[in-house]
Write a structure and sequence with these properties.
Elements (H helix, E strand, L loop, with lengths): L2 H15 L4 H9 L8 E5 L5 H8 L3 E5 L3 H10 L6 E4 L2 E2 L4 E7 L11 H7 L11 E9 L1 H8 L4 E4 L5 H6 L7 E6 L4 H15 L4 E7 L13 H9 L8 E7 L2
Parallel strand pairs: 1-2, 1-7, 2-3, 4-6, 7-8
Antiparallel strand pairs: 5-6, 8-10, 9-10
Helix pairs in contact: 2-3, 8-9
Length: about 250
């Protein structure tokens, strides 16, 4: 048995699934983005806590996860739920195959971005994380998922520095989405904002940040792209990471 990988998987499950009240917090947080009867894409589904929350809100879910252990876990957990589709693959700008870079002890920070490993790995936030070359994983695009499953109401993207690449595989604005930001590589998040503004047109998205797993928006009413760029650029490299949420306004 690969004990480091097994321990890493159990560590992830304890962090993301073992807190009794976390499910209720997730549902309260995401109910503004994920309508009952709607659909959500979870890109980088990992341990599946967001998948479970989206289902509890009454949405169909497409869970995208390239890591074999997590994909197997998701298929087992949602095997009897026809409203959950688990895809053992990754997303990017074009279809193909890319080498996964993984950390056995910290599997939730697996990435397809060698640049992320080099730059974020040098920061204090990732001290102790050691990435190793993993398998080649199949890559598809957001556009391909939409063509097959329909237009989602919400997309969560958590792919460790590959978020911009994922958005480059999208050719239309979506009602709402989130993407992870890491202060040590905040230019990736800035590029994601630029991409969304390009897709929807200037000023159509509002933006807000949630830090870590606190599940609270710092700007509940949302801010402009310009304000969000300024906020991200002001972060020191060792600041906490989190997610930028964006939603369309009329």
């Amino acid at each position: 048995m690969d004990w480091p990988a097994t321990l890493g998987l159990w560590r992830s499950l304890l962090i993301y699934r073992a807190i009794p009240w976390r499910g209720a917090q997730l549902r309260r947080f995401y109910c503004r983005f994920v309508p009952a009867g709607g659909m959500a894409f979870d890109v980088g589904a990992h341990a599946g806590n967001r998948v479970a929350a989206f289902r509890a809100l009454g949405a169909r879910v497409v869970a995208v996860e390239p890591q074999v252990a997590f994909a197997r876990l998701l298929r087992r957990e949602f095997a009897r739920d026809p409203q959950v589709r688990v895809l053992e693959q990754a997303l990017g700008r074009v279809p193909g195959q890319v080498r996964l870079l993984a950390s056995k002890r910290n599997p939730t920070v697996a990435t397809l971005s060698a640049d992320f490993v080099q730059r974020a790995g040098a920061s204090a936030s990732f001290e102790g994380v050691r990435w190793q070359p993993g398998p080649l994983v199949t890559v598809t695009t957001l556009d391909a998922l939409i063509a097959e499953h329909g237009r989602p109401d919400f997309v969560k993207i958590d792919v460790e520095g590959f978020e911009w690449e994922v958005l480059l595989g999208l050719s239309q604005p979506l009602p709402a989405l989130s993407f992870e930001f890491v202060p040590a590589v905040h230019d990736v998040a800035l590029a994601c904002i630029d991409r969304l503004e390009q897709l929807a047109g200037p000023g159509r998205y509002r933006y807000a940040v949630s830090l870590g797993e606190r599940l609270r928006l710092l700007q509940p009413e949302g801010e402009s792209a310009e304000a969000m760029r300024a906020w991200l650029q002001a972060l020191p490299p060792d600041a906490p990471s989190g997610d930028v949420h964006a939603w369309l306004v009329n």
